[in-house]
Amino acid sequence: MKEININTEFIKLDAFLKWAGVASLGSEAKIYILEEMVKVNGEICTQRGKKLRSGDVVNFEDEDYKIV
């Protein structure tokens, strides 16, 4: 599991995918989310603007990213 540091109270899911290096463009992140390729805390998430906070775990292509 990779730990990703954020320095704000929360980060939106699409922005997080770019921050973590999963997606290189916002449009790429949008596609991943809309095609149900992203899980947040074990559940598929299709909300681009989902607010992620410290302790949340994002899964993409069998790789886990924990927000710290």
Automatic annotation (TrEMBL):
Entry-linked Pfam families: S4_2 (PF13275)
Signal peptide: none
Entry's transmembrane regions: none
Sections of the chain in a coiled coil: none
Gene3D superfamilies assigned to the protein according to its UniProt record, in alphabetical order: RNA-binding S4 domain
Keyword list, A-Z: RNA-binding
Top-level division of the source organism's lineage: Bacteria
Name of the protein: S4 domain-containing protein YaaA
Species this protein is from: Clostridium sardiniense (Clostridium absonum)
Lineage, top ranks: Bacteria, Bacillati, Bacillota, Clostridia, Eubacteriales
Gene name per UniProt: yaaA
